[in-house]
Amino acid sequence: MTDTDVAARPKTRRALLIAVAAVVVLGGLAVRTAFFSYTSDDYRAFVSQWYEFIKQNGGFSALKYNFANYNTPYLYLLAILTHIPVPTLYGVKAISILFDLVLAFFTYRIVALRYPGTWWPLLAGAIVLYLPTVVLNSAAWAQVDSAYSAFGVGGVYFVLRKRPWLACVFFGLAFAFKLQAVFFFPALLLFVLRKRVPWPALLLIPAVYLVLDVPALLAGANFGDLLKIYLSQSDTYDQLTLNAPNVYQYLSSVSSSSALKIGGIVVTGLILLALMIPVVVRKSELTPARIVLVSAISVTLVPYFLPAMHERYFYPADALSVIAAFYLPKRLWAFPILEQFASGFAYAPYLLNSRQGGPGGFPGFPGFPGSPGSPGGPGGRRGSGFPGFPGGTGGTGGRRGGFPGGSRPGGTGAGDARPGGTGTGGTTEPPGVNDPGHLVQRNAGGAQSGQQFRPPGGGNGGMTTGTVLVDFWILSTAMLAGLVLAVWAAVQDFRRGTPADPQPAPEPVPEPDPEPAPEQTKGAPE
Questions:
Q1: How far is CA 215 from CA 72, 76, 209, in A?
Q2: 300 and 401 in a common domain
């Protein structure tokens, strides 16, 4: 084999890798197109309405109003979307799918640190891209959990690359997109305590958040409202769990409890401290495998024990459980299987029932009326209208579905068993003293001026709604089993005190050639 052939081999392999990766990406996009026409209730009640509000109020200039309960980065993307001639539903889903690809890319890069020059990284990225929850979250649900998860996993990648400042920029991007980025923070705290991340780098997280608010401030947004956006999210739901396969599914007789919510937060903190203190006291080394494992445990444990969690909040665990299994395949091969089983089937009650029973009209946003209601479709279960608003009606035997009426009546349908209520028309009023620049919406259900439209949660221990394919106590047990498996692998590894990463044998150091003896001069004495 000539030197030219040897030099050509890496180029050929790289070209083949790019070709296979392109096929994987195109296949992932093709799978997602099968769900593009699906419209979830969340999309209809929130995202599409935010889009319409932005479009009706001048694009970016609409950001001066407090009309959404998401932070500004996602609203910037919606504002950009209003200038692109694509169907709204497809454009919204394309945003989320873009972050699916970013998440798969960082999965590839993290696994490539463990298996350089192999096909394993591409396999890991493909698995994450094709995970049922990853596909459904963006392509069907039109949610954007992929954004904060992609940036959070990117932060883990840069911690592994020993670039802590850039890692904190990525954690800041994750936090700016969604509050659930805090699931990464226990792991980040451990990285700081073990000096993998300098504590001043943490200041970049709020700095990134504030910098991303600047365009909205320039548009006229209220700075206080931007700072309080996550505080307003935290008190939206009273339920202990909202279809999340976590510990609160075992409390079938309790739907909500302030004492249990406070206790759940305290218990979560105590568990995290119990796991972190021995690592800090023993000054255990954080090897790459341990960094991945700690991150996976963090994003699984926190939503498992915290109250008021949605089923979607295990999204970052969906990806990191796969990455952890590639780093420690003998010990953690079952972790992503258990986690995905629980997380995936937890999506069923919402997605399978999201279109049963036609919605009533949507509430009117400031300055324009709501949409008319649509007739109910066939359904099987009785759901619940949103608080303060009668729902749209189901079809024959249908569930009492949907959403409140806007400024026009909601749709009605024939229901022989339980006809649901009709959507109720709202009215608009001129701007008030306490609501300058807005047209105040008032609904029959009693929403006050300035209040954001809030849905109820999904399930809790005794009130999981929708079509349940697998009992939630089974899903919660599966999630717990995966978490225990990961924690046990970490405990074993840290107690052993040896690195979890297989250490390659050191290459032999060639001995230096002996120096030639100095030449002797003729005639010199010996």
A1: 9, 9, 12
A2: yes
